[in-house]
Amino acid sequence: MKKKKTIPIEADGHSVRLVAAIDIGATSVRMLIAGIDEGSGDIRRIDSLHQAVDLGRDAFTRGYIRKETTERCVEILRSFQEIMAEYRITEAKDIKAVATSAVREAVNREAFLDRLYIATGIDVEDIDEAEVTRYVYLAVKPVLDVTPGLSRGTVLLTEVGGGSTEFLVIRRGQVVFAHTYRLGAVRIRELLDDVNAPVARIPDILENEIHNSIERIQHSVSLRSKPKMLAVGGDIRFAAQRIMRGWDGSGVAEIKLSDLDKLCRKILAMSQDEIVRKFGLTYQEAETLGPALLSYARLAGAMRLEKISVASTSLRDGLVVDLASDAWSNEFSAQVLQSARKLAKQYDEDIEHAEHVTRLALQLFRALKDEHRLHERYELILRVAGLLHDIGAFISAGGHHKHSMYLIQNSEIFGLGARERNLIAQVARYHRRSEPKQTHPDYMALDRESRIAVAKLSAILRVADALDRSHACNVGAMKVLLEPGQVSLVVPDERDLTIEELGLQQKGQMFERVYGLRIIMVPGDVI
Amino acid sequence: MKKAASTKKPFFNRELSWLEFNQRVLDEASNPDVPLLERLKFLAITASNLAEFFMVRVGGLYLLQQHRIAKRDPSGLTPRKRLKAVSDRAHSMVAEQYRLYNEVLETGLSRAGIVRVAPSAMTNEQKVSAERFFLNEIVPVVTPMAVYEDQVFPLLVNVRMNLIVRLAPERAGMSERFAVIPLVGGLPRFVSMPSNDEWSFALIEDVAGMFIDRLFPGETVLECTPFIITRNADLEVRDEFAQDLLSEMEDILRARAKSDTVRLEAGQGMSRSAQAFLKRVLGISSEQVYELGGPPALNDFMQIALRDGFDRLRYETWLPQHSPQIDQQAGMFENIADRNILLHHPYESFDPVLRLIQEAAEDPHVLAIKQILYRTSSRSPVVAALTRAARNGKHVAVIVELKARFDEARNIDWARRMEEAGVQVIYGVRGFKTHAKLCLIVRKEPAKGIERYVHFGTGNYNEATARLYTDISFLTCDPDLGTAAAAFFNAITGYSQPVQYARLYAAPIAMRARLLELIEGEMVRARQGQKSRIRAKVNSLVDPDIINALYRASDAGVRIELIVRGMCCLMPGVKGLSEKISVVSIIDRFLEHSRIFCFSAGGDDTVLISSADWMPRNLDRRCELMVEINDAAAKARLIEILDSGLNDTVKGKWLQPDGMYLPAAPGKLRKGRRSQQGLYESACRAIDRQIQAQRTVFKPHRPS
Predict the structure, then answer these.
(1) DSSP 3-state assignment of A174?
(2) Which of A266, A428, B18, B393 stands 20 to 30 A from B300 (CA)?
(3) Residue A181 pLDDT > 90, yes or no?
(4) Which of B544, B596, B551, B607 is nearest to B578 (CA)?
């Protein structure tokens, strides 16, 4: 017998946490079981399951989810729970379940999610495009980092889903553009079914969408050199496995566009029965496979690319990354801030002022941690609000806080969903003038926790904004002293801070009401 | 093949090919180099094989014929022609069985001290003993039934011996009468007789015949002859073995609860009138009657072959050896974590596989055990271990595949006991017999997280057959194969849609396609002038798609060497069709059972093991697995096993273009190579070498 390698029976300090990530999509419900090494943070995929559902057809053609489909989802989640039980995954903190476009677009979304919760106890969150993008980015990031050729240069990350198609332009690891259009494989299938000889006459609408998207990309990011295309998603993964025989799904597979075209033509020419029989797919998968591949191929073609890189990562990997890190990672935050800065620039904001206010707000937020007791995630909300609080001035100076609000609500910021954008919009809206009131419908539409957060954050933002009332960045270094009943902001007595002091007196009132603390500026030594 | 192709299709008929397989078993029974009791065993096997063959296949052919379904099989024969050919071949085979028994084996046994005493040769003492047996053991349990032509004939138990008794007419001018006596299951076939020989016995039908008139007081018994009827098997069994016949006539089958007689075996000396009577009441033709030249039910003689003592008349025992890959002192998880383990049973012991499951049941880190059990018993140590595991709080899921129907299956005691212990028992997969051999153990290890330990096999988890069948076990914790195995379980238990994984291919989804792809790959290589070669070992080769692909590959110049123990519908060595293909069949003391495939893949061999034969039923109608072996040492061993079979000049018979099997042509291969012996000896040498090596390591005692 050669050397003996024994398995340590005692834990050597750290252990592996098992988690489940569930994604309720247009054509399937999928679950990933993964192990997170609590020492190194390494993630290992352990088990992948999927079951076919008709959510896409329900939502996109009828507009609502039928009862049968709902019950089918309940059944699937229950069976997934059995698998979770095998791995002893029982606590809510180890389970993350999301629903994407199909559920989001169904009118009975709430009833559907409630039913799932009542039947299974699993709290399924319906997430929007930006959140999907965020999870996909989280999933793809580790792959980008280790793949030569993708870690540098520009990468166009694409996923054709059942209900929508996601785009991310990543340059040197930074997201510089994000966009989603609502044309997924389920809808393309319908378009194809409407015309004869589908391959010969690709529906105009698909071509249009693709061209529009590429134009938009080119408009917002200059593509000096040809980007690489990184495709993710179940359909392209399947195609890569067919084309690259023996690809085990790890790392990145590079396929030729000509091969993809060939496969695509072959599949579009097959009946669904044939696809099911030949490839062992579900009917739902068979229906969308051809259209999805066509979409990828056309995109690559329009970009004049000859090769497509395919990674087998998915939204679920992103969910696991999210479960692994309690707060949003620095890296992710950096991406979001980057995107916010771009937006600020678009609206000609005084960027120096904005950055300065944001810095001060951040300092206050951190110093007042024990007072506001807000989750770390709100730090990013505040920072983005700080960067964008004045963009409404682009529309008009009067009531610019309100313009800021709707601009933020309706802009794409990488990684932030509508929920988060709305929070940011509200914080920006209350950076001046009226405090939140019961007569403000947008504010009252928030849940209680969010209302409180908005109040706490906008109070801080007001103070920070007051501290740069002159837009001259006069308050450089500052020390925040928590004293009984008051917060003293110690600033060096170097510059004339009259305007700032005046501002604080006015704008500090909200802070005093929200925190029950007086806020004053005192000259003094900062170091 | 020009000529062959013009007249018929280039396939052998599967029934005739099956009969040729049985002939090769019979050849072993005839082989004077084989010890006497082993020869008797082979003879008994041919008899039980034939009975099963008539039940599951010939019955189906008769039904097709009766309903005038004239569809031709791949070889181009109609059911009528197939039946005729089968009947001719089976008749001559039965004649040969009895020639062998009467002329060679019985006398040989007699000389060796196992003496059959015929009634005419009994001493008085033996007669007294026989009479006592008749009165005490037979009379209390048998029931003679008067049978009449115009009345419903009693339903006799399938393939069990009966006696037909012909009674003289009551009065002159009336006709003879008949009675039937089923010899009930509890009676022994062989009745020990007092004698000076080592063991003497009388056959029960002889003992019964001697005193049968005691059951018919006042009557004149003209004749008492044993007979056996073979009926169509019940639907479940046919579903398994004759699906290709069945699909065309499911409605017919449903309408017939009780199936017809397909064969009558008439004991030696049965009178014309008795035989005619049975033919009439059973509604069969002369073609279906087999007049036996000696004792019926030669399969019963297995009992003699297995009787205690007489080891001098058997092969020397080949005990399963320890595998040198396994450290007996270490746990199985440790062993598998250390290296992939390939076991070749029965040369190597099956114990490590049992040990793995047993250790898993007790191991605190094990979360789950998932296992497929195909026909097992309450005594199975696997069942015991799984039950214990469930009691220990592990998640245990077992897919059991039983011969019986669903409801009956549930009532099987051991399955219910497993359920009671908390095992999730799944009674098969709807529409598919689960034939894959797979055990998956999920372990949460403190340092590594989830680790999966997998056993892939080519044979059942049955410790008894593991001593008789040649099979492969592959034990690994390769994460890819673990993931694939988990996905396979998720799919067959309905938790997930099937997913395709590299290196693990399941029938009916991916296996056939992968095999065709691999064959085509060799074909393309051959066309491009690269090295190409296919070696494969299966039990049966019937599937027309696979065979056609092999023909095409041969045509492209691929060298194809096949080891096919049983049925083979492929015609090898036919000019213009299959010149590059050779087929060898090995019948030896162990039943060849492993399925191993090797494709040269341009030099970097692709080697796979599988639970499936190359038959439509396995590739389309069963849940089977094929796994690609990447481990270099394991690959090398599997290739060695293939090569050993391909060079067997002692027990190997080569299939000829005309369907005959012949020993290796002289000069082609080295003489005197017996594959099973070689493999056994190398298993012994391997473990001996290891023990030697351990001995020479000096282990100084050190104060601790």
Answers:
(1) strand
(2) B18
(3) no
(4) B551
A301 and A346 both lie in a single domain: no
Give the range of the structural domain holding residue A43, as residue numbers without chain letter: 16-127
CATH number at residue A119: 3.30.420.40
Position A7 pLDDT exceeds 90? no
Helix (H) or strand (E) holding A309: strand A307-311
User: Please, is B349 exposed, middle or buried when counting C-beta atoms within 10 Å of its C-beta (0-12, 13-18, 19+)?
Assistant: buried
Q: What is the DSSP string of B181-193?
A: EE--TTS-SEEEE
B701 a catalytic residue = no
Residues 6+ apart with CB under 8 A from B296: B161, B205, B226, B227, B228, B265, B267
Residues A506 and A515: their CA atoms lie apart, in Å, by 16
B253: its two tokens: 């089958």
Whether B495 sits inside 8 A of A8 (CB atoms) is no
- Which residues of chain B form CATH 3.30.1840.10? 10-313
Pairing of strands B595-599, B533-538: antiparallel
What CA–CA distances, in Å, run from A413 to A212, A213, A388, A470? Answer: 19, 16, 11, 28
Predicted local distance difference test score (pLDDT) of residue A163: 79
Look at residue A301 in the predicted model and tell me its pLDDT. Answer: 86
Q: Average pLDDT, whole number, for chain B? A: 89
Chains A & B: contacts with CB separation below 8 Å: 99
Residues of A in contact with B486 (CB under 8 A): 46-47
Residue written as tokens 């998932």?
A: B370
- Judged by average pLDDT, the poorest of B134-143, B243-252, B380-389 is B243-252
Shortest CB distance from B449 goes to which of A7, A35, A50? A35
Looking at 3.40.50.300, 3.40.50.800, 3.30.870.10, 1.10.760.10, the CATH number of the domain B332-497 comes to 3.30.870.10
Q: Do A49 and B496 touch (CB under 8 A)?
A: yes
Does residue A222 have a pLDDT over 70? no
Residues in Cβ contact with B77 at an 8 Å cutoff, skipping those fewer than 6 apart:
B8, B13, B85
Indicate the pLDDT class of residue A273, thresholds 50, 70 and 90: confident
What's the mean pLDDT in A358-370? 92
Instruction: For the domain covering B506-687, report its CATH number.
Output: 3.30.870.10
Q: Which residues contact A494 (CB under 8 A, 6 or more apart)?
A: none
- Please, which pLDDT band fits residue B658 given cuts at 50, 70 and 90? very high
Distance CA B333, CA B369 (A): 13
Give the closest residue to A91 by CA, choosing from A115, A122, A124, A114. Answer: A122
Count CB atoms within 10 A of the CB of residue B697. Answer: 7
Q: Side chain identity at B346, as an amino acid letter?
A: P
Listing DSSP states for A475-520 in one string gives: --S-EEEEETTEEEEEE-SSS--HHHHHHHHHHHHHHHHHHS-EEE
**pLDDT exceeds 90 at position B429:** no
Beta strands in B466-572 (DSSP E): 469-476, 504-507, 533-538, 559-564
Contacts of B473 (CB under 8 A, 6+ apart): B341, B342, B343, B345, B350, B352, B353, B455, B456, B457
A257: helix, coil or strand?
A: helix
Confirm or reject contact between A485 and chain B (CB < 8 A): no
Side-chain-facing half-sphere of B361: CA atoms under 13 Å: 19
d(Cα A162, Cα A27) in Å, to the nearest integer?
7
Sign of CA pseudo-dihedral B332, B338, B340, B344: negative
Contact A217, A167 (CB under 8 A): yes
Tell whether B483 is within 8 A of chain A (Cβ).
yes
From the list B338, B445, B480, which residue is nearest A5 (CB)? B338
User: Which tokens hold the place of A306?
Assistant: 């000859």
**A273-to-A269, A277, A285, B509 alpha-carbon distances in Å:** 12, 6, 11, 14
- Six-digit token string for A202: 């690709």
Note whether ipTM > 0.90 here.
Answer: no
